[in-house]
Amino acid sequence: MPSAQTMKLRSQNYQENVLKQGKVPKSLLKKEEKLPVGPVLLGVFLFVVVGSALFQILNVASSGQEV
């Protein structure tokens, strides 16, 4: 079992934290602005998807096939 002094210190720290509730500095908050995918990878993905869609549209239009 912890000593009385340890319990007193823990209790003081808890009380201080309770009084600071809602006043946490921004550096302690989690950063949610981080993107899961980098901008370069996102650009390459969009280039491939949009490029392939345009290529398919042009291919169908030039061959005269109906979809």
UniProtKB/TrEMBL annotation:
Q: Which UniProt keywords apply?
A: Endoplasmic reticulum, Membrane, Transmembrane, Transmembrane helix
Which residue ranges does UniProt annotate as crossing the membrane?
35-58
A Pfam family the protein falls into: RAMP4
Protein localization: Endoplasmic reticulum membrane
Q: What is its main location?
A: endoplasmic reticulum
Top-level division of the source organism's lineage: Eukaryota
Report if keyword Transmembrane helix is assigned: yes
Q: Which InterPro entries match?
A: ER_stress-assoc (IPR010580)
Bilayer topology reads: Single-pass membrane protein
GO cellular-component term (any): endoplasmic reticulum membrane
Q: Which is a GO BP term held by this UniProt record?
A: endoplasmic reticulum unfolded protein response
Q: Which family does it belong to?
A: Belongs to the RAMP4 family.
- This protein is called Uncharacterized protein
